[in-house]
Automatic annotation (TrEMBL):
CDD domains in the cross-refs: NAD_bind_m-THF_DH_Cyclohyd
UniProt name for this protein: Bifunctional protein FolD
The protein's annotated pathway: One-carbon metabolism; tetrahydrofolate interconversion
Catalyses which reaction(s): (6R)-5,10-methenyltetrahydrofolate + H2O = (6R)-10-formyltetrahydrofolate + H(+); (6R)-5,10-methylene-5,6,7,8-tetrahydrofolate + NADP(+) = (6R)-5,10-methenyltetrahydrofolate + NADPH
GO molecular function: methenyltetrahydrofolate cyclohydrolase activity; methylenetetrahydrofolate dehydrogenase (NADP+) activity
Amino acid sequence: MANVIYGSDIAKQVKKDLRLRIMKLKNEQKRLPKLVVVLVGEHPASVSYVKGKEKACHEIGMENDLILLPATTSEDELLQIIHQLNTDTKVDGILVQLPLPAHMDEHVILHAIDPKKDVDGFHPVNVGKMLLQEPTFLSCTPKGIIRMLEEIGMTDLSGKQAVVLGRSNIVGKPVAQLLLNHNATVTICHSKTEDIKSITKRADILVVSVGKARLVKRDWVKPGAVVIDVGINRDDQNKLCGDVDFANVSEVAGYITPVPKGVGPMTIAMLLENTLQSYEQREHVSWDER
Ligand SMILES: Nc1nc2c(c(=O)[nH]1)N[C@@H](CN(C=O)c1ccc(C(=O)N[C@@H](CCC(=O)O)C(=O)O)cc1)CN2
């Protein structure tokens, strides 16, 4: 049976470390790091995710504002709020929860966030820096996946075949790039790829982010492979499940992440880490002072 990688446990440890760093700032009576999350509309899953972010900030002592806007907010109104946050010297991180309502252009909104406060790592400047392996904010889910691989000793991926199912800007493309940056040989599969199973069966590391409940079956997976499941779906019984058929794939995989308690909690932990990174850059905190 596969070893289960609980992102929830790793995230707990990350948050413990961040809390200690913030406590130190508090004791020194320094300004505290601050994250502002903006949610437009009342998409139920998004409401739950932004509440999760608020709770996580509270747990580690990070300052946090949650700006809730009606779904009827215009693009200009949202841009105005982003401009105010960009110039607010007390704000270190800005996150606009996705997806946005259909009348808004996601690119216009994400491009408006100051790259130095873009703790989601979605701004083209930060995406470009990631591609060039320059220091920057790495987007949270891909960064969390790499951290999970590191936790099981997979730091240098030389000689490993990594296959990514899904090519979204939030997960598929950036995680493929980060795996490449760690020397893996990377293949991306998507809805137009033919005979996906023959490709996934070769993967030493399989990352799945397609949004289809239990799509990946046992016979898609190479024995001993590391399977990272990014999907969050509801099945016919309204039970939360991933894109991987966990019960059956765990019988062949070497490692597997569960849903829930896998990648999701890592996304939030990495967001907090990025916000503290932004604070430290803005306050010119050196490595020794941390
Ligand atoms: N601006 C952004 N928008 C979105 C992002 C993002 O990184 N930035 N990612 C996703 C949603 N997401 C964070 O925002 C997120 C998804 C899931 C979880 C999580 O902890 N999930 C739990 C299960 C939750 C449940 O019960 O439904 C788990 O997997 O254990 C955290 C964050 C899209 N939008």
